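User: Please predict the structure of the protein below. I'd like the answer in structure-token form so I can feed it into my own downstream comparison script.

Assistant: Understood. Taking the following sequence of 121 residues as input:
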Amino acid sequence: RDDFDEFKRSREGAGTIVSMTEYEEGLPVTVAFPTDNVHKGLSEHLSSLGKRQLKVAETEKYAHVTYFFNGGEEAPFMGEDRSLVPSPRVATYDLHPEMSARGVTRSVIAGLKDNYDFILV
């Protein structure tokens, strides 16, 4: 703030603020890892080759293996199937650290038996 006058201060050596990612447009910080829009990512490429793919995740990580992995695309690509395994309903996951590993495993095994070309967990 330019109007701060509680004590004398200098702008020399103030340093630089660096953010890991851009949290919001217009912040006066340097961004270490700018957002990189994914074009023709792995899922889309596999789809263009006619490959079948299965995405398996619990509720907690479902968006990561679908939306984020697909470069921000909400809809599945052609040949992409998804398996959502409900996460346990607990206050904190230390009360159920195994989460839904058995359900995820069952989905993966079913996908292997169904001969998917690519499975993402």
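That's the full token string. The CA atoms of residues 74 and 102 lie 27 Å apart.
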